[in-house]
């Protein structure tokens, strides 16, 4: 393949795939039948977070890269990966007096549409960073960095990571973040103060099963049209909150397992959510060796398996927390990547699937964007 | 004579392509030499040392043939004519 960048027009889909050995860019027109892949970018480095941001007239791709030897940083491209900024100095750095050193960047989330230079990044050890210049420089959000609970937060299997950032208000003054294993914390004042929001979320690995904090939350999603309602995939447990995360109710109705990592909101229907259940915490593979995406269309009252085009025997797959995503076309494209390096795509809300890659390095994240329509996507 | 710092290929992007830095200032320890390295090429130092001033877990530093991990760490003494070598550890997945 001679092209080094995808050729993209308005309405095309840009699919960013992070792996433990670099990042790949897939592109397709709005029909999403034929895909082109370019990569790897950053060969040999792991990429756990990717984002695309069109606010402020940009066409900016952001990639969180981690060299096994030389550390982690966020790199920017304004030409779909033809060139990436350094940066010279590593742009995400803890202050010396924090006693902390950056391990990995787990999430990059564009800020509000009204503030196109602002972005958020979630990192390990657990902290939230903010950029006010489009992602070129970053500083920690002090209210969370100095939180009184920090000494009692414990790392999960992936480390003590802040992996999920959920804006709850248009100006992002109200946000929810999730940390493994500390649980959910919400700010109502733009990050100055944070309160745990885990009432009803189980911690099976603790003597007190319902602590104030300490849960191993794997992913939280919501829909901008109904921001007060959140869905949560827990380390055992599938939950919904109807009150901004103040309380949580079990909605694991008809799933083969309520253990899992990934969760994705439908772009247009606040009642529709996708998950990929895993068998258990000890055997983190698809139950019954069947590759099934589960979907609810009634906010968790029931879940249905989506299997057409997915292998239904001998499929021992793992889909991690950021490896399930959707684009914003009217008939949504839904995508996921596996630990074994396969990428599956659906162009019809998940009704049918095709493999668009089957031998990539182990996949860490998948993010989809419709070009010309990604003003504030995450 | 000066102390030399030899860099791995992966860091040449941040040293304008130079693989060896000759330090003209007097250095008593590896820490002194890295301070000078940071003044000349701060981006290189970022890749070797964490925010807390510790050598990254999978980076090895040698003075001559001796790893500083088995000497006195960053306080390991250096003298004129010594070569400090920065090496990516044999690790990874």
Features:
heterodimer, A: 378 residues, mainly beta, four-stranded antiparallel β-sheet, 1 helix, 27 strands, B: 93 residues, alpha+beta, five-stranded mixed β-sheet, 2 helices, 5 strands, globular
Commentary on this structure:
The complex is a heterodimer of chains A (378) and B (93). Chain A has one helix at residues 142-145; strands at residues 13-19, 22-28, 36-41, 46-53, 60-67, 71-77, 104-110, 119-124, 127-131, 139-140, 161-167, 175-180, 183-187, 195-196, 217-223, 226-234, 238-241, 249-250, 259-265, 273-278, 293-296, 304-306, 324-326, 334-337, 343-346, 354-357, 363-370. Chain A is mainly β and 378 residues long. Chain A has a 4-stranded antiparallel β-sheet with strand order 3-2-1-27, with no helix packed on it. A 4-stranded antiparallel β-sheet of chain A has the order 7-8-9-10. In chain A, strands 11-12-13-14 form a 4-stranded antiparallel β-sheet, with no helix packed on it. The model of chain A has no long low-confidence stretch (mean pLDDT 95). Chain B has 93 residues and is an alpha+beta fold. Chain B has 2 helices and 5 strands. Chain B has helices spanning 30-40, 42-48, and strands spanning 3-6, 20-23, 59-63, 66-67, 83-88. In chain B, strands 2-1-5-3-4 form a 5-stranded mixed β-sheet, covered by helices on one side. The longest helix of chain B has 11 residues, at 30-40. Chain B is globular and about 40 Å long. The model of chain B has no long low-confidence stretch (mean pLDDT 93). Chains A and B meet through loops of A and α2 of B.
Summarize the structure.
The complex is a heterodimer of chains A (378) and B (93). Chain A is mainly beta. Chain A has 1 helix and 27 strands.
Task: Please describe the topology of this protein.
The complex is a heterodimer of chains A (378) and B (93).
Chain A: E1 13-19, E2 22-28, E3 36-41, E4 46-53, E5 60-67, E6 71-77, E7 104-110, E8 119-124, E9 127-131, E10 139-140, H1 142-145, E11 161-167, E12 175-180, E13 183-187, E14 195-196, E15 217-223, E16 226-234, E17 238-241, E18 249-250, E19 259-265, E20 273-278, E21 293-296, E22 304-306, E23 324-326, E24 334-337, E25 343-346, E26 354-357, E27 363-370
Chain B: E1 3-6, E2 20-23, H1 30-40, H2 42-48, E3 59-63, E4 66-67, E5 83-88
Parallel strand pairs in B: 1-5
Antiparallel strand pairs in B: 1-2, 3-4, 3-5
